[in-house]
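During the second year of the project, the team shifted from modelling isolated chains to modelling whole assemblies. The rationale, set out in the original proposal, was that interfaces cannot be judged from single-chain predictions alone. As a representative example for this report, we include one of the complexes processed in the last quarter. Its constituent sequences, exactly as entered into the pipeline, are reproduced here:
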Amino acid sequence: MTGTVPSRHQDIADDLRSQITTGRIQPGERLPSEADLADRYKVSTVTLRRALAVLQGEGLVEKIHGKGNFVRRPHRKIMYVGGWGTLDPWTAAEAALRVTVRSTTVQAYGHLTTLLNVPVGSPLAEFSCASHAGESPHGLARIYIPRDLAPVGDLDDASSCWEAATRFAVLSPAPAAVRETACARAPTPDEASALRIGHAAPVLGITRVATDVTGRIVEAALLVFPGDRVDAVFATHHMTQERQIQA
Amino acid sequence: MTGTVPSRHQDIADDLRSQITTGRIQPGERLPSEADLADRYKVSTVTLRRALAVLQGEGLVEKIHGKGNFVRRPHRKIMYVGGWGTLDPWTAAEAALRVTVRSTTVQAYGHLTTLLNVPVGSPLAEFSCASHAGESPHGLARIYIPRDLAPVGDLDDASSCWEAATRFAVLSPAPAAVRETACARAPTPDEASALRIGHAAPVLGITRVATDVTGRIVEAALLVFPGDRVDAVFATHHMTQERQIQA
DNA sequence: CAGTGGTCTAGACCACGCG
DNA sequence: GCGTGGTCTAGACCACTGT
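Output from the structure prediction step:
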């Protein structure tokens, strides 16, 4: 028996959680003010805020400075599908997705050079994407492509942006190989504000590196998603019989 | 310019972080007591503890009740390799890994039934695994196998345990297909204490479902890793040429 | 026992959003 | 301006680890 230490803020979090999951407090609804809640539960505001922090970490509550605490819309978890994009990654919410793109040309630096395996200072096209599903932001992406492989001309024209937005979801010219690395971490302050999540809410980071048949890296994408909003799915089919990678 | 909000605990976290990363405080070393630090930085203990919480969330500091705050060993990030295990998942630390296994028979319930696609109450072999790399715990796994596919006889005998421990890392009888779902989330209280991480430190959860050629699910594994200790890698090779799924 | 972290309080002050 | 959340304080008390 693992001795569960009764902690007041956990109890309160549990209570509020059940009120949310049972629907007694509706999604989108505002909770009573922290002062009111602290009063109701007979605790100090600090303790009450700790309870809310728990729920925020679980993605149940969104705090908005100056306005209040709001119950988040139910987690319709969206799937990011790994591999080379045979399935549309955004199937579930495809229609409701709005993607904004900003593109520039940068020079390779730091770990970008190792990621893309290019020399320092090498020109890269950078696409910064943010996708929103309705109100709430739902994914960030920074995609880097060697400049000579990117569309010529103005990177900010319509077609380039469209391509980037598409790339965010699907790898259109199927590369020879894709290597994806997934990690769970806390968001950077930038990411936290861009995704409208708390500093404590975990994010799912995916680094995707695509290679062509010659082994050249044709794209590196750094994707970030709120942990409570998206899962990443990777399927490995064993083909018919003869194929078995390595050995 | 995004107005940086000066917050004392962040400043302190920054200061301590730099002292750690520059090696002024060595890995494994104990920090001064919270009271001392609070005194040194001229803040209240609460504020100082918030600073430490930040570092704990980043995996830089490990708190041990009654003993102190310790600098964690550097993050040698370990790779979990997706797919059906052609590469050893624990390459990096294989030698140093110690795995403990506890096995029982349970009846399918809740979402286990949907995961394994078996009726409620269906007998399952459950293997609870914990892997330790030296001192620090480094991964948890709960593996479920339909009872009739599991080794007959005592589940707790040596061979069964060995098999489970192996399964934790590699899928030995290569299944026809493997589907892995990765998510970033906060740890449950159990997981937090088992992994010796804070409630705020994100974990990487991987749900692995393996299917045989007939489409039957032969294994479901729920894996949990500290987010700062392991990344998951998924590689998709595009085979030779003829194969291109979907248009 | 002394020393450590863990939780909580009551109240202060600041920063944001909105009328 | 008012009501909201965000940060901080000084001090209390409890729980765990060692001797």
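The CA atoms of residues 32 and 180 of chain A lie 43 Å apart. Residues 5, 33-35, 45-46, 49, 63-69 of chain A lie near DNA strand D (CB under 10 Å from a C1').
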